[in-house]
Design a protein that fits this description.
The chain is 63% helix and 1% strand. With 340 residues, it is mainly alpha-helical. Strand 1 and strand 2 form a beta hairpin. The chain starts with a helix and ends in a 10-residue tail after the last helix. Keywords: Coiled coil.
């Protein structure tokens, strides 16, 4: 057995000593769960079918009999929800289009009352559409936040863990991710929890000075919307240019940044921190380390830009970390068409 003190010292090389400022409130998870339940798009039978398929897949992985390119049981367990969501989405979009046409026709005919009625119906349908699409957004949010909070709190609730895996797969399917690109092992295998351990009556390791603790995620109504537009585009482009200089074109640099953002969005812990904290807190969390890993991962497809960052001073990488923080907070990639 390795000496505990030696292990702590080894891991300190890769740890900035981040701590949570306060005890994490588990209600942040249940708040989003309640919103998902209220959608009435899935049933207990759907979750039970998924649970059976999930454990079947776990056994196959354990026995080395799992085909990573095919997962019919898991997909079948989520088919009904995906079909129901897409069917309602199609119906709402068609109904909105009908009311828009009715409004245009009534306006052309000088029918003020008819135009007002059509616009009223359109607004009602538009609100219903926004509430419906919130379901897809909340699926991914629930999966990410549960994955993050479950490292801090032992929920001891297999049904909640099952819902998190179910939400993650349905979210990926609604976002159009191809079957072969779905990481099934990440859906069915339980992650490790982080618990405070006492070593010889002492806390595990000395206090780390000058490290600001992370704030816990705070429960809030999932219906709240604060859309962030890329109105900071000029500042973002300036930071990118400062980091890369004349290496490649601006378009290639933006494509690279968007590629790094795509890699980072797969990191549930990073995304949970991004979605629930200020930029100042995010930059003290997991994002900086995750960005450096993403840069290394992108070496194969973007060798010149990745190599430049890995060889550059801290200021260049810090600029890119701040850029990626803004991009992830916005919820959108940088629009290349706006560079023209």
């Amino acid at each position: 057995m390795n000496d505990p003190d030696w292990i702590v010292e080894c891991f300190k090389k890769y740890d900035n000593g981040a701590e949570i400022l306060e005890v994490q409130d588990p209600n942040v998870v249940y708040t989003i769960k309640d919103s998902l339940d209220d959608s009435n798009l899935y049933t207990e039978e759907d979750l039970e079918q998924f649970k059976v398929a999930r454990f079947k897949t776990i056994r196959e992985i354990a026995n080395d009999s799992f085909d990573g390119n095919k997962h019919p049981d898991l997909f079948k367990a989520t088919d009904r929800v995906v079909r129901l969501y897409n069917h309602k989405l199609k119906m709402l979009n068609e109904a909105i289009e009908i009311q828009e046409n009715a409004f245009n026709q009534a306006t052309a005919q000088g029918n003020t009352q008819g135009a007002e009625q059509a616009e009223f119906e359109r607004k009602q349908l538009s609100s219903e559409l926004l509430a419906h699409t919130d379901f897809k957004n909340n699926l991914g949010k629930f999966a990410r936040i549960y994955s993050y909070v479950a490292q801090l709190i032992d929920f001891g609730d297999p049904e909640l863990e099952n819902l998190a895996a179910f939400s993650k797969l349905v979210s990926k399917r609604l976002n159009g991710l191809p079957t072969k690109e779905v990481d099934i092992s990440g859906l069915v295998l339980t992650g490790y929890g982080i618990f405070k351990k006492k070593l010889n009556g002492q806390d595990d390791g000395p206090d780390t000075p000058d490290v600001s603790p992370l704030e816990p995620i705070i429960p809030k109504a999932t219906g709240e919307k604060a859309p962030t537009q890329l109105n900071y585009l000029k500042d973002v482009i300036d930071m990118i240019s400062a980091a890369f200089g004349d290496v490649s074109t601006k378009a290639e640099q933006v494509i690279y940044i968007n590629h790094l953002a795509t890699i980072l969005r797969k990191n549930d812990v990073v995304m949970a921190q991004v979605e629930n904290n200020s930029e100042e807190i995010i930059l003290k969390g997991n994002l900086p380390t995750a960005v450096k890993s993403a840069i290394i991962q992108a070496l194969g497809s973007h060798q010149a830009l990745s190599s430049l960052l890995l060889k550059s001073d801290d200021q260049a990488i810090n600029n890119i970390i701040k850029v990626l923080c803004k991009v992830l907070q916005s919820g959108h990639d940088i629009d290349l068409t706006k560079l023209q």
